[in-house]
Amino acid sequence: MDIEWILGDLGSVPWEREFDFAVMTGHAFQVLLGDDEPRGALAAVHAALTDGGQFGFETRGPLGRAWES
Prior knowledge:
Blueprint: E1 19-24, H1 36-48, E2 49-57
Parallel strand pairs: 1-2
């Protein structure tokens, strides 16, 4: 399997069906506030993925309050 990693910001480049896989790391999803930011980010990911492409991300549930246990 040949993998090429590209560091990028979906908001700065209008990717069109370029990637088989996109990943959002470092709990970055939690900084997307309100309803419009996550919708915009997910729309940009969708546009960047090839047909059948996949999106992976990590996040945490802030309501879980893991830091208290």
